[in-house]
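Problem 12. The chain below contains 131 residues. Write out its predicted structure in token notation.
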Amino acid sequence: MTTGASGRLAGIKILLVDDDLLSIKLIIAALDGEGSFIQSASNAADALTLLRADAPRLVVLDLALPDMSGLELAKLIRSTPGCRDTVILAVSSRNGRETEREALNAGCAAFLRKPIDALSLAEVLVGLLHD
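Solution.
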């Protein structure tokens, strides 16, 4: 877990769900100094365990997971008590309006194509939290 006392995301709990360790490391590095509390899960089952134990304010969710589609997980997050207001940012290497539309229909607030622009990620997250 990464923590910090100040920054644009100070005190915000973020769950990263991605089976690609490099993607997780990139996001953690991009958010370094923003003050968020970050946890990560490499599959949907672990993500659901973390979500139920302590609901994050924000989830960065890869749509391709080994045990379940990220779209299915987004729908489960939406139906999990205590997580209905959790903001979900879908990320995927799949491109196109169809992928974005599917993510939004599953309950995600926004969609970013991988590779994620590390320089603008914090700004995107701040914007989603204030929409």
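Discussion. The mean pLDDT is 93. Students who got a different answer should revisit the alignment rule from Section 12.3.
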